[in-house]
Design goal:
There is one protein chain. This protein is 38% helix and 22% strand.
Amino acid sequence: MKKFILYNFILLFIIFVQVGLAQKELKRRGFIGLGYRAITQADIYSLKLPEGKGLIVNRVLPNTPAERSGIKVGDILNKLDERDILGQSEFLAILRKYYAGDTIKITLLRNGKPKVVNLVMQALPKEKSDEIDIEYTSFPSGGIYLRAVVTSPLESQNKKLPSLLIVSALNSPQLIGASFYSLYRELAYAVSKAGLRVLRFELRGYGDSEGADYRTTDFNTEVKDNLTALDYLMNRDDVDKDNVFVFGISTGGQVAAILANKREIRGLITCNTIGRTFYERMIETLRLQGKFSGDSDSEIDQTIKNYFNLTISVSNGESLNSILQRSPELSKLVNQNNRIMDDRTIGYWRQQLNLNLSDIYSKITESVLVLYAESDFLTQLACHEHVREVLTSAGNEDVSLTVIPNCDHVFSYAKDKKESFENYKIQNFQFNAEPVRHITEWLTARVIK
């Protein structure tokens, strides 16, 4: 009993210190104000780009540094200052070094000719809305501060409201006011209009958040940051602690399920996620994507073999150097930053690969909504059916599985998985409101009055 009391005293003290230290004024990152896409094989032929390096500008936002510098749609970004842009990973890593007011030199290719422009970075614009209240805040986690945004119903200051934490997937949300599509923003705004406070936050080293680049951290660190975010939300004076929900999508669904194991929450929403072992899910995903890409059956089989060789070696604790020395053909699955699979570290994946998801879900007693978008080519319905089966077999009596047609991994319209695959290549996303409607109705129906 004494240990239990001491533990709770320490936990309350930590939460008190964290809440008391919140609201640090974070230095604003700079932004350029353009959209871009990767260079495709078709671009290499049509634009005569033998190296295939860089990014193609597909949007220039008005009244931004990009527009003022003269950057145009169709320009190919080659360098930021003197650093080569090999792809999105390098581009974002370089931008992390700049803040509002800094000047950056951009080398680009326009109509086959090189051009250099100088651009003054502008502070990232804050989100604005006439329909909800938007609060920019921050909270400490592991010695650094993370940027967060809390959205709330209008005129709800000082009222204790039910709340939702949004757990992101492999990439960080961008908490800025811009015209690009964001499922996190769409979800947060809709849920806030329905009467809940919603917390989103930027991962470490992204946007205004402090710390090293989130792509260099491990899975357990990401879980801890989300747990800290949940504690911060639950202990706000304007939050009803008995009505706090957690939403997680893709790999964030796994994190959200872990949070439900660690804290008493009102309910969990897990969406377009991995529910079976990584290997069961990955074999289907790789085969489907291979067929959509036009690969031969033998090429697809070899890709699956390579991924299994890599991931099993990673999960067994083998170092990356050892893996590549033994199987040099796997180097094609490793990027120039020595990261793998969606630009994450080997340590991140080792921890995630060794999760026992069935064990995690079997311990969840709170209400659970399992959501699957039918056109999602990255995850499978079978994973979500398995999650439902594990929950119900363990005695959870409030489990719902909802399948949304004409909808893909990021809540965008797509008639089928093939169309979603093509849309991803050119970043063509159009919001499908159906999953958000289902989530909002499920949340409001389960709020304890």
